Amino acid sequence: MTAPPATLPPGSLGDEEDARLVAEVEEKTPVLYELGTTGLKRAAGYVDEEFLPQLRGRKAVQIFREMDENDPIVGAMNFAVRNLIKEVDWPVVPASSNREDTEAAKFVESCMDDMSHSWQSFIDEVLSCISYGWAWHEIVFKRRLGPWQRTGEKRSQYNDGLIGIRKLPIRAQDTLLRWAFDESGDTKAMIQLAPPYYQTVTLPITRSLLFRPGAHKNNPEGRSMLRNAYRPYFFKKRLEEVEAIGVERDLAGLPKVDVPTEYIKAKPGSDQYKMVDSMRKMVRAVRRNEQEGIIFPRAYDQDTKQALFEFSLLGSGGARQFSTDTLIQRYETRILFTMLADFIMVGHQNTGTYNMHLDKTGLFKTALNSLVTNIADTINRHLIPRLFAVNGWRPASGKLPKIVPGDVEAPDLTQLAQFLGATAGLGFTWGPDAEIERWLRRISGMPELSEKAYKARQKESRVEEATRYAEEQTRYLAARSALAQGQAEQQMMAQGIPPADQMQQAMGQYDQGQAAQQQAQQSQTDNRRAEELHQQQLMQGGSASGARPPSRSGGGSSSRPGAGSPSRKGGGRRAVARR
């Protein structure tokens, strides 16, 4: 055993004291109480997680906006992301197939189509979280009282009186003043300071949606997907500026002005110092453009008769040691690496294959599918429950409908054909299984099944399942009968009965059983037919007598037809049965 240290580190009380504290906390702290925090660095509503000062708060918003709107590589990358995600379908799936859950899903779909802006516009605004790391959207409700209402709080395509979604507007990232947190570090509100009035507005999280690509430490500002691209963007921007200056100097030449030595040593404020300063400004301002030209003084030395001032352009000394194009292209590729979008450079380089291009686009689409799922999860967790809560609608199933987005892009049809061929080889058929067929149609970009065709597929599926079950039962009964027959044969052999006699005895028993069964069925049929004929004759006899009194011949009367006829006595039913 090693000896304990002479001095304990700060905050350490020793093993025994730590164990006592842990036991005390476990005993006295309620289970529902939160003990720790996320460790987010914040103070007075401002987050201080970024170690680069220029990427904190509003400065980060300005830089990411510059990257998004001013750089062609970042712009191409965001253009690809936005347009691919905007093509995704956002269907609403009911919690179950019962009527109430189906109506709840239709209600959510109606709210998505009944906003003052389109669903695609909302998704396009949400995707600003890619550049800035977060996107805050306020939830604005309305009462659905028909399309003839003048105000937006009541105007709707529907007149059912329910509360729907009026709009989901974004609250721009550059209007953030600070955040509001609770004791545990959860975000409670966004404090906004926006033009044109520049008044502080509190936007509670209970009436908002917060979208983030990543939420480390539950940071409300998330993490921009351009964060890792900032460093290559910084160097790329500087190299492009140096390259532009170098090209201009190569075209125009390096300006040079020769001045006397005493002018350079002149005291500040003197005429000679002012002359040198004007020459310095002139050299810096020399440009090859439509306003090029200089006004230069002509002065000579009285002793040497040489010009005091001389302006000239120095030419380039040869090719540069480094290729700026190669350096800039390297940083452009690194920017695309951060978003797995380097496939954009395919075709602009001398390397790369088609299979490599497919692999890279596959990774890019997988990343986008993850982002789409993240957006749908935020809507399902916060928007849909609040929509049903304001309407006081609690489905009996206890579950709410969900938005299940489709894939970013349909899979390759060649691969899909190979998949269908492989599944067909495994015994899969397209027709009956409606759910799989609907899914295959969706991922392959085919038209979806109509409701009528979908129900027909479901019916076919149920019929096929029942047929398969009947076949399995038939095989089971046949196997059971064979087993019973084998056991009977073993018993008969144990009794000493020869196999031929076994067969004859079994056939005789089978024939006797079949004959007895047919005789019983025939007897039941004859009795039923005789009873029906008897009831018909009773009805005919009563209708034919009318108001006449009954006949009393034969020493009495009878209510049954033919009761006094000797020919039908005792054999009436058998005669009818024979006929």
Describe the structure in your own words.
With 579 residues, the chain is mostly helical. Among the domains are: 42-229 and 354-403, no CATH class; 254-314, no CATH class. It has 16 helices and 14 strands. The chain has helices at 15-28, 57-70, 72-86, 99-113, 119-126, 129-132, 230-252, 261-264, 271-285, 324-337, 354-390, 413-425, 434-443, 451-494, 499-545, 572-578, and strands at 42-43, 46-47, 92-93, 135-138, 140-143, 163-167, 170-171, 176-181, 187-194, 199-204, 208-211, 254-258, 310-314, 402-403. The strands form 6 sheets. Strands 7-4-11 form a 3-stranded antiparallel beta sheet. The protein has a 3-stranded antiparallel beta sheet with strand order 8-9-10, with no helix packed on it. A hairpin with a 2-residue loop joins strand 1 and strand 2. The relative contact order is 0.07.
Secondary-structure element string = HEEHHEHHHEEEEEEEEHEHHEHHEHHHHH
Share in β-strands: 5-15%
Strands of the widest sheet, in order across it, are 7-4-11
N-to-C span: 111 Å
Helical fraction equals: 40-55%
Low-confidence stretches: 542-579
**Which structural class fits the helix and strand makeup?**
mainly alpha
Care to count the β-strands?
14
Can you summarize the main beta sheet? 3 strands, antiparallel
Which word captures the global form? elongated
The pLDDT mean sits at 78
Rg of Cα set: 46 Å
Structure annotation, total helices = 16
